[in-house]
Amino acid sequence: MLSKSENAVDTCEALLRAAHKQKVVSKPEFQSSMHKNMPTVLSKKPYMGNIIMHLMKGHYFNGSRLVGVLFAKWFNEITENKSKCPEVTIPMVVLTSTAVYAALSWKASGCPSKFNFTGNQFSEVYLLHVKILEDLRMRVPKKFHKLMANIFEAIQKLGHNTIPTTSHAEALAFLNIDGMDSK
Q1: In the chain, how many domains are there?
Q2: Over the stretch 67-82, which tens digit does the pLDDT of each residue have?
Q3: For residue 179, is it within any domain?
Q4: CA torsion, ordered 26, 83, 142, 74, to nearest 10 deg
Q5: Could you tell me if 129 and 28 are in contact, meaning their C-beta atoms sit under 8 angstroms apart?
Q6: H/E element holding 81?
Q7: Could you tell me if residue 143 is inside a domain?
Q8: pLDDT at residue number 26
Q9: Distances from the Cα of 163 to the Cαs of 6, 37, 179, in angstroms?
């Protein structure tokens, strides 16, 4: 899934470099944007980094058998009682963030052939992200719901920005519809 983003791999590599120098990769605001090939802190937009969006799109919303598609009705029901927009769930954001942390840890440790992504190994990182998001939900519910809705919206936009709107008209113009066999 990372290959669909031009800078997702660069972002991950920059995060690895920064993580090697500073032990702050588990902080959600560090999962970031790029400035001069270095990650920049998005303290006003936690969990909105490109790599998080692309991973969530690929693992939750890309394909007819994935969670985001199978339970699409549930996402719409959320709009009735919260931010009036579909939202991602805390477990989706937290698991994705923990997976990014695990991948960065694997890379930082020299890419060992045996590396397990287990609950025991990364439970502290997972629980840290849960606590952060639960705290946001309790202290500033409107901002929390806006954040989760913004993540959902960003993920949905990923699939719609790949084909130019003129492609349909160009394809029809290319076809020789009058010369097609009608029998």
Answers
A1: 1
A2: 655 566 665 555 555 5
A3: no
A4: -40
A5: yes
A6: helix 72-81
A7: yes
A8: 42
A9: 15, 27, 27
Q: Does residue 142 fall inside a structural domain? A: yes
Token pair 């959902």 is found at 152
Report residue 3 as tokens. Answer: 């290959």
Contact residues for 72 (Cβ-Cβ < 8 A; gap 6+): none
DSSP one-letter string for 129-155? HHHHHHHHHHH-HHHHHHHHHHHHHHH
pLDDT (average), residues 59-73: 66
Tell me the residue length of the chain: 183
Helix/strand/coil percent split, the chain, to 5: 60, 5, 35
Range of the domain at 45: 2-174
Residue appearing with tokens 């991973």: 55
The amino acid sitting at 57 is K
Which amino acid is residue 26, in one-letter code?
S
Beta-bridged to residue 39, according to DSSP, are 34
At residue 90, the pLDDT reads 92
Q: Distance (Å, rounded) from C-alpha 155 to C-alpha 88?
A: 9
Residue 182 placed within a domain: no
Helix (H) or strand (E) holding 39: strand 38-40
Q: Does residue 180 carry a pLDDT above 80? A: no
- Give the contacts of 154 (CB within 8 A, at least 6 positions apart): 48, 53
